[in-house]
Amino acid sequence: MFNDLELTILTGNTHPELAVKVCEYLNTPLGAADVFEFTNQNIFVRILENVRHHDVFIIQPTSRPVNTGIMELLIMIDAVKRASAGRITAVLPYYAYGRSDKKDQPRVPVTGRLIADLLTVAGANRVLTIDLHAPQIQGFFNIPVDELTALYTLSRYFQQKNLDNLVVVAPDVGKAKDARNFAARLNAPVAIVEKRRVGNEDKAEALNIIGDVEGRRALMVDDEIDTGGTIIEAANLLLAKGVTEVYACCTHPIFSGQAIERLNSSQIKEVVVTNTVPLPHDRLSPKVTVLSIASLLGEAIYRIHTGLSVGAMFEE
Of these residues, 195, 203, 241, 269, which one is catalytic? Predict the structure, then answer.
């Protein structure tokens, strides 16, 4: 019944450029809304057009500033719910707190589940996201979740580069399946970095490489790069094991702190990312190639709105 509803796309302040590109793909105007913060840091939202009985998609990656972005999204969901929207889809190209997906220490929260509960209570009817940090996060929701993947976008780029003698490297055992799928598209073998997380710090130690990498080009595949320390340490270990060149790719370029400076001074030849989160000019680098996922999101929104299969987008 939802394909009889009028389509409306809204966005907060986290990544309006992405929302504009999605609307260009769909050939539809971006909905009008005021979203701003008072001097007392309270967020105000006003939807500036009629959304009654509309199929509303709110595009808002929960990236820097993370907590402000989350609150903007929750308040926007509440606003369109109270304006009698027909269906509300929260579009989170990047899902913050995804690393907090289990209780792995005494007296710690499962914040990934908390965010899911907040979105549902606010009034979201479904969620659209890209490359969750852990697949079990889908199970945190009692509403439908469509998880897209940028694997095809990233792998197509490297297919066109036509790098020979390539090995795809997973940054840890948990990402081995993703690396295997990526490697299958490039007709390349897989290796795995054995690493150890250091406490609650944003740091991990690369200990060993599982697999044959000597004399090959290495392509490291991950869902996100945060500070860059772990991926650079893994690159150094690969080079020490006889790799000739190191490339890296990820869906979410968080690039916290000195990440860009670290990548620029590293021996990684190229880092390929997508625009699920905004990359300010001071976080751009000649080593970083940014691929757009606007058409991926746009096609998924079209399929959800018209009742078509989202999974069919990835069938080959």
Answer: 195
Task: Give 181-186's long-range contacts (Cβ < 8 A, gap of 24+).
Answer: 181/151, 182/151, 182/154, 182/155, 182/219, 182/221, 185/151, 185/152, 185/155, 185/159, 186/155, 186/158, 186/159, 186/219
In a shared domain, residues 22 and 125: yes
What value, to the nearest 5°, has the Cα angle with vertex 111 and ends 199 and 56? 140
pLDDT digits (tens, 9 = 90+) for 38-86: 999 999 999 999 999 999 999 999 998 999 999 999 999 999 999 999 9
How many structural domains comprise the chain?
2
- pLDDT at residue 279, rounded to an integer: 87
**Which CATH number belongs to the domain containing residue 281 in this structure?**
3.40.50.2020
- Statement to judge: residues 68 and 166 lie in one domain: no
pTM of the full predicted structure? 0.93
Is 195 marked active-site?
A: yes
